[in-house]
Design a protein that fits this description.
protein dimerization activity; Sensor_HK_TwoCompSys; about 60% helix; 12 helices; transmembrane helix; elongated; alpha+beta; 5 strands
């Protein structure tokens, strides 16, 4: 057999030429971006922004809201005769042509407050037409060309109004058209041009920039106020939800205590009371089972309400017996506070029985009120009063004006949602809450909580005793 002929070695391939696509793509992208910007400018020039809110529409006084219209009216009344006089005396135009040019450059100024871009589309062509009329009678060094002095003044006011109303693309387009037209007119008649058009271009750019900066600053302030309003509402809503969750946890502890007592009493009844019939024992067993099931459901609900990473409350819930500690802590914080609590409140025999929900709510209301005094009225004289009136528990916290400067954080409105929790607690117990500032600069918090008297409790005094 013949041996296979070895194949010739592969020819070395030439190195690939550097690709030119990215360069072409970059050039195309640059041209495309320039085309898009040009289209945006043309669209902004031909589609003015809607009138929207008038200038100074949010001013508190009527004359301030009417100020832009008064300025536009005054500017028009002054510019019309001045322009006619300048064109007839300095530029030697006939009265008819001067009146037509002055009307085209002055009357549109009435639209500065609402439609400045539309006014510019009338004033600018009128200025170009006036420049063409001035070429014949004007001699070198005789007057300003291509824009007379009244035209420059009116144009600057108008461009300032455009900056206050239109977006950036329109401002760029207006400035480019003004600059290109001024330079082109200066090149057409170089003998009449004295460089004034360059100064006009600079002043026009300054007017547009200042107006645009003021407009954007106003928009930013309005957006900031709107965002602060939204944030305040969200903060208040979040505080409300957190307080409701806290109330739910505290109510669980209050109700769970009673349910546990019912369970223990129902389970131990057959052992404590001898001779119970079988039906009564089954009834007590059913009561204990229902109480245990209710406790299980409450704990399950509490797991959903409790925030992540928080455990159950093992300490007893505070009440009226701990308000004295709150007042003492407030005094240590630098607030002179006094406490007045009725002697008939408590759990001793012969006194009013305060429900645990009311007891806890009263404590929380006093706690939040004193915390607000420390934050918002440091050093203010504060009086705390807790007393029973007929079937209600009255909680009153009154503070005077602050005797020390308030911190910057509190002065800016940080916090301030403690009243939300107070209202929730008062609503929970079926009571009422009255809060508000005092004429001397202080603040008052008054809560009225329903107070139930236990059945069969002895009367407080002789007037409550039954008649013989």
């Amino acid at each position: 057999m013949r041996e296979p002929t070895p194949s010739p070695p592969p020819r070395p391939t030439a190195p690939p030429k550097p690709a030119t696509a990215p360069r072409a793509e970059g050039r195309d992208g640059l041209f495309a971006a320039a085309g898009r910007r040009l289209r945006e400018v043309l669209y902004a020039l031909t589609h003015p922004s809607p009138p929207g809110t008038p200038l100074l529409a949010d001013a508190p006084k009527r004359w301030q809201r009417l100020l832009p219209y008064l300025v536009a009216l005054t500017l028009t009344v002054v510019m019309l005769p001045v322009t006619i006089q300048v064109l007839t005396n300095d530029y030697h135009l006939s009265g008819g042509i001067a009146g037509a040019v002055a009307a085209g450059q002055s009357l549109p100024l009435l639209m500065i407050a609402h439609r400045p871009l539309q006014a510019w589309w009338v004033v600018f062509p009128s200025g170009v037409a006036a420049a063409s009329f001035l070429v014949g009678p004007l001699h070198p060094g005789q007057g300003i060309w291509p824009w007379p002095a009244p035209t420059i003044v009116g144009m600057l006011f108008l461009l300032f109004g455009v900056g206050l109303r239109e977006r950036r693309a329109a401002l760029v387009g207006v400035w480019l058209v003004t600059a290109v037209t001024g330079l082109a007119l200066g090149q057409l008649e170089p003998e009449l041009s004295d460089g004034t058009q360059v100064l006009t271009i600079v002043l026009a750019g300054a007017a547009l920039i200042i107006g645009g900066a003021l407009r954007e600053r106003g928009e930013a302030q309005r957006a900031l106020v709107e965002q602060e309003t939204i944030s305040e509402a969200e903060r208040a809503h979040r505080t409300l939800l957190e307080e409701r969750t806290r109330i739910a946890r505290e109510l669980h502890d209050v109700v769970a205590h009673h349910m546990s007592m019912i369970t223990v009493q129902a389970d131990s009844a057959p052992y404590r009371i001898s001779g119970l019939p079988e039906a009564a024992q089954e009834e007590f067993a059913s009561i204990a089972a229902s109480a245990r099931e209710s406790l299980t459901e409450m704990r399950r609900l509490l797991v959903v309400l409790r925030s992540e990473g928080t455990g159950g409350e093992r300490a007893p819930q505070p009440g009226l017996d701990r308000i004295q500690q709150l007042v003492e802590a407030t005094v240590r914080a630098g607030v002179p506070a006094e406490l007045s609590i009725a002697a008939e409140l408590g759990s001793r025999p012969g006194t009013l029985a305060v429900p645990q929900a009311v007891d806890l709510s009263a404590y929380r209301i006093v706690q939040e009120a004193l915390a607000n005094v420390v934050r918002h009225a440091p050093g203010a004289v504060t009086r705390v009063s807790v007393r029973a009136e007929e079937t209600d528990l009255l909680v009153l916290v009154v503070n005077g004006p602050a005797s020390e400067p308030v911190s910057r954080i509190e002065a800016k409105g940080a916090g301030g949602h403690g009243l939300v929790g107070m209202r929730e607690r008062v609503r929970l117990t079926g009571g009422t809450l009255d809060t508000g500032p005092l004429p001397d600069g202080g603040f008052r918090v008054a809560a009225r909580l329903p107070l139930a008297r236990p059945a069969g409790s002895p009367p407080q005094d002789e007037k409550d005793a039954p008649a013989p």
